[in-house]
Input
Amino acid sequence: MKNILFLILATALSLNLSTAAAGDAAAGKNKSATCGACHGMNGISPNDLWPNLAGQKEGYLVAQLKAFRAGERNNPMMAPMAAPLSDADIADLAAYYSSLGK
Output
């Protein structure tokens, strides 16, 4: 019985956390101007050295931006770009870029 209650509680918390982390694509579009300089204004990079962001999975984008911000993923160009981003900024940017077609 304890295991069932724990499973129900864990599922409820998980659903609540994933809903809270959902970004706003419209807000992300407004925040994406700086990103567009390298990754293209529509998330398609004009340079082979920088990845396309359009159509990437939302969770992947969140994880990568948080890793750059935390210094877990080292890149001298991305670290200062990600450093000032809040969790809400990251969620919004990820929602925007994941909503775009490749």
Notes: DSSP finds six helices and no strands in the chain. Helices lie at 2-20, 25-31, 33-39, 58-70, 78-82, 87-99.
